[in-house]
Each structure stands twice: as structure tokens, then as C-alpha cells.
Automatic annotation (TrEMBL):
Compartments where located: Membrane
Residue ranges the record marks as coiled coil: none
KW Transmembrane helix (keyword) present: yes
Keyword Transmembrane helix included in the entry's annotation: yes
GO cellular component: plasma membrane
Protein name from the UniProt record: Phospholipid scramblase
Membrane topology: Single-pass type II membrane protein
Family: Belongs to the phospholipid scramblase family.
Cofactor: Ca(2+)
């Protein structure tokens, strides 16, 4: 179970993964999944879908992709991995699969500090926002599978793209920071 809070720390959404046991056991963090996002009344407002794909940089034909649907069944956008030999790079696309934004992370992901994935304009000249994995301290990082993320974007950003950035946060977590399969997630 995941909690999604606003900038005041209030719980606004809950997220629960729906994955098959076999994919949890055999595919680990590379597994396909559906994450259902629900409001405080338990109504599903958004689905995040990730197909099974290889996630090694030596296989550029099998890059990661994630679809965001809001409401479920209606695509609002996609997160598509771009091949790069050492940087995590992605394109944020709208419902028509047209590129809207770019996102890139640092070359080194496992240092003892916050890790920023910068969200930029398509030409990568203007910073639009960021997804930050917050450093939880040595004990928390080494012995738990609990992570905190912060997503920053302008208030006037299209609400559909805001939803896609929430999906991008889950993709980043699964691709780079989840080591062990966790059936309760």
C-alpha cells in the first residue's frame, strides 16, 4: 500500500499494486503490474499499467513504458524510457502519444543524499519540475523497503500530465530503488 499526500502532508490518495504471485516471485522489480489509485472514499480514480519488459541498458529494444489511465480505461498519458548508455532518461507523452516533457535522472543513483529526476521542457532547456527520492538515512535505506518521494510541478500544469508524473514516480521506484519483491505492496 502506498500513500499519496499533498504538500501539506494530507493523505489525498491511496495506491495498491495488483500483480500476479508468479510475477512477484520470478520477475521481482521488473514485473508487470497495475497500480490502482483510490481517493479517500475508496473509489478507483486512476490506474497505472506497466507491461513486462526487460530493463537492462544492453536491450534497447525492450525499454520500459508505463500507461496512466484516468478514469480507468481512458489513457491520459505515457512514460517512455529513452535509451541512453548511462543516464536514466524518459519522455512524458500525452494521451495521443505526443511528447510533452522530458525527464532525466543522475548517472549515479545510490549515493547518500536525495536523488533528483529533473522534469524539463522537450528541448531540455527549461526546468518544469522534479521527482525527488528522499534519502531516508542509512538504517531505513538498508533494512526497509520504505521510500519517500516528492513530486514538484507548476500548479498550472495540465492535470493529465500531473497524473502521468505520479505514474513516473512509480516507474522510477520499481526500476531503480526496489530490490526485493514485496507481496504486500
Amino acid at each position: 500500500m502506498y500513500l499519496i499526500k499533498n504538500n501539506l502532508g494530507q493523505k489525498i490518495y491511496y495506491a495498491a499494486e495488483d500483480s500476479k504471485c508468479c510475477s512477484l516471485l520470478f520477475c521481482g522489480s521488473h514485473r508487470c503490474f497495475v497500480i490502482h489509485i483510490t481517493d479517500n472514499f475508496g473509489q478507483i480514480i486512476m490506474d497505472i499499467l506497466r507491461p513486462l519488459r526487460c530493463s537492462k541498458c544492453c536491450f534497447p529494444c525492450c525499454l520500459q513504458e508505463l500507461e496512466v489511465q484516468a478514469p480507468p480505461g481512458t489513457p491520459v498519458g505515457y512514460v517512455v524510457q529513452n535509451w541512453h548508455p548511462y543516464l536514466p532518461k524518459f519522455t512524458i507523452q500525452n494521451e495521443r502519444r505526443e511528447p510533452v516533457l522530458k525527464m532525466a535522472g543522475p548517472c549515479v543513483l545510490f549515493c547518500f543524499s536525495d536523488i533528483d529526476f529533473k522534469v524539463t521542457s522537450l528541448d531540455e532547456t527549461m526546468l518544469v519540475g522534479k521527482i525527488k527520492k528522499q534519502w531516508g538515512g542509512f538504517i531505513k535505506e538498508a533494512f526497509t523497503d520504505v521510500d519517500n518521494y516528492e513530486i514538484q510541478f507548476p500548479k498550472d500544469l495540465d492535470v493529465k500530465i500531473k497524473a502521468v508524473l505520479i505514474g513516473a514516480c512509480f516507474l522510477i521506484d520499481f526500476m531503480f530503488f526496489e530490490e526485493r519483491p514485496s507481496p504486500e505492496r
